[in-house]
Amino acid sequence: MTERTVEQAAKQPADEGLRSLPRNVWAVSATSFFMDISSEMVINILPLFLSNALGVKTNLIGLIEGVAESTSSLLKLFSGWLSDRLGGRKWIAVAGYGISMLAKPFFYFANTWGLVAGVRWADRVGKGIRTAPRDALVADSVEESRRGAAFGFQRAADTAGAMLGLLIALLVVWLAQSNSVALGASTFRTVVLLSIIPAVLAVAALAFGARDVPLQGQRAMPKFAFRALGKRFMIFMLIVSVFDLGNSSDAFLVLRAQERGLSVTGILTMLVVFNLIYTLVSAPAGKLSDRIGRRRLIIYGWVVYALIYLGFSAAQSGWQIFGLYAVYGLYYGLAYGSSKAIVADLVPAELRGTAYGTYNAVLGILDLPASLIAGILWQGLGTWAGFGPSAPFLFGGVLALVAAVMMAVWKPETHKSLSA
């Protein structure tokens, strides 16, 4: 397929099928697919390894997860800005995926929470470098009317990889320890070794499959400032920040499932079902957002999230958590891709890299207080024992409802892709 510019892509009909999406969308989607096989094999059982094998408390696990995301946030902002300055996205993204690939094997040797945290943070450095230029590469490679479909497809590939990674981890855990409630250290390390193979394939797919889209005309170099992104973008970020403050690490959902009695294989099966639903919903939801408005889908997704989190708070058994987590995929399918697509709608094309970097950076910074708050609400701090395992989910559900109301009230004056 020949290289296509943004102007050439814009001439294509909006109703073409997924097979007509540009080469870059397919290359990025393949990379997301392979990297999520690798990552999801390890990351979803990492809180169980910390809790069961190393005896780490949930508030410290929240600290590890929060610092991991916040460590990557400034790199996300810098990498997005740099991709705007250089007019190229691909090789910055390749470097980020490469760092994550090189970090993963060190999980095998980690036998203290400090070493686990160091490897986790190194992996997030790679994510921080790659995320903004990768998203900008997708946005630059497809016309505006199909942007939701492109991001939805990329997220669907990402989630399909996650599901396959979870199935591999599930098989390893089943063969190694059957239905044990606690995760063994040797089982975790076996999963880590297997995760290296798809990580290598992910880097190769992007390095050899993607091409930078040339930016046309003389564009002003972006300044490293929030004000340049505009009022609409900043209001959107304020609303998203309210939601994200209650959106703590999904590690707490995994620990909640185990606390309610699910075995490790039960938890992994739960995550497989979640990813199946997410995969089925993502691409259709992205295409729907191009037709009826991304803001409406975000509101629906946040309301679904609120109801599910309130259910997590009230759940009395592991199987109730299982069912709620499966429906949790509806939130991801409805709101995740639409939230990213709306960023490109709110800013000029030459500032997309900076906008995506800012979007990811703000949310990454908020991940630290969100996870710290969740951990403290669960197990307290110092001599205070906290409110118990239901408290973080009650807090998250209430903030999601507040954010949904704010998004419904906000009426940005822009094109129909934002309108509800």
What do you see in this structure?
The chain has helices spanning about 5-10, 25-45, 45-55, 60-85, 90-105, 115-140, 145-175, 185-210, 230-245, 250-260, 265-290, 295-315, 320-345, 350-380, 390-410. By secondary structure, it is an all-alpha fold. The longest helix has about 30 residues, at about 145-175. It is globular, with a radius of gyration of 20 Å.
The succession of helices and strands, N to C, reads HHHHHHHHHHHHHHH
Percent of residues in helical segments? Answer: over 70%
Q: Which spans have pLDDT < 50 for at least 5 consecutive residues? A: 1-15, 216-224
Integer-rounded radius of gyration:
20 Å
Count, helices: 15
Distance between the termini: 36 Å
Largest sheet: none
Present the secondary structure layout:
Elements: H1 6-10, H2 23-43, H3 46-53, H4 58-86, H5 90-103, H6 113-140, H7 147-177, H8 185-209, H9 231-245, H10 251-259, H11 264-292, H12 294-314, H13 318-346, H14 352-379, H15 391-409
